[in-house]
Amino acid sequence: FIVASSFYNGLGVERDVEKAYQYAKIAAEYGHSGAQNLVGMINYEGTDTLEKNEEMALKWYRKAAKSNEAAALYNLAMLYENGAVVMQNYNEAFKYYKMASDFGSISGTNIIGFFHEHGIGTERNKVAAFKYYFKAASKGSPFGQYNLGRCFFYGIGIEKNVITAIKWFELAGLQGHGNSFLTLAVIHD
Fold first, then answer.
1. N or C end of the chain: smaller count of CB under 10 Å?
2. Quick one: three-class SS letters along 141-189?
3. What is the DSSP string of 91-143?
4. Could you read off the pLDDT of 82-115 as tens digits, one per residue?
């Protein structure tokens, strides 16, 4: 799987998705959940020689998800959220994002916060939203940091604190989160 991942990401070698797919497919067939997810991703995206196959992507994501592969759980959640390949189902999306978060996906953690904040696939719970944003922000997610800044700025699930909000917006901005800079500009205006 390491070789497949190297080719897919262009780490130490020239990026070659075709070779990545060949190596990942072998590891996936032997049950490697990371490789199963990568095979799913490549099927979902398609390549020059491999036609996009969303059904096959779904199959591989599900296989990897059975092993609690966080990235595959996240990818399944996105399919359910967007109604790609499967019927749009926010409850299923929430379930898979939550599982992805539980197994280490920082992006999944941030999205669970968003779902709680807006009542998507679950009841609206601003305190839970704050908790998940805080967890994602603490692990370095610029999206989590931005959302945590919003929580402090607007009093979402926590008492308003503009000074703390600015701190989180700045941290997110330093990682290239564009909305953070816009928000800071508005605050300082």
1. C
2. CHHHHHHHHHHHHHCCCCCCCHHHHHHHHHHHHHCCCHHHHHHHHHHHC
3. HHHHHHHHHHHHTT-HHHHHHHHHHHHHTSSS---HHHHHHHHHHHHHTT-HH
4. 998 999 999 999 999 999 999 999 999 999 999 9
| Token representation of residue 11 | 């780490």
Cα distances from 44 to residues 27, 35, 61, 82, 109, in angstroms, run: 18, 14, 10, 14, 23
Is the distance from CB of 15 to CB of 8 less than 8 angstroms?
yes
- Tokens coding 165: 């909000």
Mean pLDDT rounded to a whole number for the chain: 96
Task: Look at residue 3 and give its three-state secondary structure.
Answer: helix
Query: Which residues touch 117 (CB under 8 Å, ≥6 apart)?
Result: 124, 126, 129, 147, 156, 157
